[in-house]
Amino acid sequence: MKVSGYQMFWLISISSLIVFSFLPMHLAVEQARQDGWISILLGGMIMLAATWITLRVCMQNKDKTLVGFVKELLGTVLGKIIVVFYFLLWFTQMATIVRGMAEFQNLVMLHNTPMALILVCMLFLVAYAVYRGGIIAVSRCAEIIGPLFVLLLYVQLFLNPQDMDVKRVLPVYADSGWLAILTGTLHSFNYMVDPSIVLMLFFFAENKRTASRAILWGTAISMLWGVLATLVLVFVTGPHIAAELVVPVYSLTKFVSILNFVQNIDAFYIPFWLFGAFIKLSVCLFILSYGISEWTGFKNWRLIAWPAAVACLAFVLFSAHRIELSNTLKNAYLIGLVYPSLYIGLPLILWMLGSLRRRRKTANAA
Amino acid sequence: MIRFLLRMSVLMLLACAVSGCTDFIEPNQLAFVMGTAVDHADDGEVEVSHQIVIPTQKSGPFGGSGDSDSFVVMSAKGKNEFEAIHKVQKKMTRRLMPSHRQLIAISEQYFQKDDVSTLFDKLNRDPANNLRDITVLVKGDLAKNFLLLDHPMEHLSSIATGKEMEINGMNRFSTRQFIIDSLSEGTRPLVPVLQIEQVKVRSKETGPIAALSGFAALNKKLKIAGFLNDAEGAGAVWMSGKGTFHAITLPWKNGKDTLSFRLTHLRRRIDSADGHDPQRVVLTVMAQAYLLENTTSLDLSETHYMLEVQKYMNDKIREDLQLTMDKVQEWGSDVFGIGEYLHRSSPYWWKSQKDDWDHKFEDLDVTVRSNVQLRSVGASGTSFN
Fold first, then answer.
1. What does the DSSP assignment read for B152-163?
2. Interface confidence: ipTM more than 0.90
3. Alpha carbon of B346: minimum distance to chain A alpha carbons (Å)
């Protein structure tokens, strides 16, 4: 199963954009007001660096997936425990995206439909895609959906020219100060892009060099979109309203009114967002099933996709009824400890261990 | 066989979900809300009225005299806006759809007795609302009565007012702008005011029409600080940067004759008087003027007369606008956005001022300058009288 560099680019950019359009802007603007774009810029740089570190780790261990090389570098027992954390991470990411999607649909369009039905439809599709086609089918879909999705998201930013007032982003820095900006960065950078999927996906890339370049480009594009979207949000609604909007991208589409004729285009955007969500969910489910199959030694990873999807469904339905579980976005442990260590800390450690091992090997060979 | 059955059942399930048939509402089960009126009711309640269009009864743009059949107004009272709307929905045979709303009319009494900012929460939170409609103040009457009016040219009074504002170049008064102005510390909202007047449109018919009759300036607590009449209001709109075109008539120096201009490309610019002192602000208005009526005896194809007229026009405009500015400044309501300008140019000084900007604005020294260019004198030179 080989994924070309071009497909990798779309996979990564769609995954990052989906998460980006969902959470970080609200968290950053809440803290830093009109300087939210500086927070997003800083957070994006941090995540770009994290992606680069992850790519270094992957280049060192070209022929194994995460499960394989963690076991090799850290020993069997410790390696297995660390990988479990990554499984939980991907699982909760899937659950967050799916639940966000279902709740959003519930709020905006389908009020009476039971949430289980919406979830079953999406998860069935995702599980079937992974079961039948694996990563190849998903990457081919991403090749088609990708350009459309990214283009629409970028175009959406420029559909509001008559309402944009560039001066709303001023005064820069004076109102918030470095503390507010950094708090905004701290709250939002975890939710911007997802470098951990690269750890698994890199194994399937055909040409490692083009794939690594593609991954960096994909991350850069989504970061650029994030900064632009925050700027446009502040231009259109000003800092006070922007801090309160929970799903700013959706609210931006509601304001569009071209020539007083093209209005209410949010109905057009939601299906495209769902396409992107499908890609992201399939990627997460694929790496989850492949990882679990390597971890347990159960050879048929395709079959694992089904129980994983059912487990995700059960988890989402369970946590939807408990408000504490569904609102853990700002939990201090998560954002301060768990996410940074999984995204940045662990790859750093793995990289250092890998380089040490390599040096020892060349020293031994010499 | 089994596979076929499995596939069929999956397809049925998907078909049910894909068409969303649990939330299936046909267009003829929807009631399109074109205008909403918010009034104060007794016992601290709020009365919400919706003007709902009935598309099946419309008979064309100029059909009949008084198409009172093309809309209905339904209203209900409740403790807050959501409860009132919910009660309206209970009286309705169709699902209310506010996504195409043109206008929100709030009565003057509601402004005085209740807190308008409580409306913002509902407008912002419920995703069914768009913030593209216009917010107006209805003076001297219940806002519901405005919705009940017929209009001789349009089918619905809310559509009529929306079109009136757009045709007259006032399209920056959307609810979103209103909320942004209310929330930001350096600007106060300027709300268009409708008044219901008796107008004779045909020889046998004198009916009430709601006409735009000025603007209201609000203070920080969203209470009315003062009313501006039509002329002053137009000047205030120009000075706050929300206007698109304007028409003025100036009396000439001998007191009898008049000059009338049409002004387009209205712009305004705010600067500090000498670069750094935030206490003195200069507001410059700019426009391009077209002379369209002249009853003086000047021959306006002569250059020096054109220059004289241009200078005179600028002086008169400056005097009138300075009067309006002083009047608004006395009320302490900064509808021009001067506070926001100071916020951006001197942000650290602004921090000490922003909490009590209503009072501090009164002490600010604002000079108005006018830089209007005379672009053309029309199609004739001297006047024909």
1. SSSS-HHHHHHH
2. no
3. 8
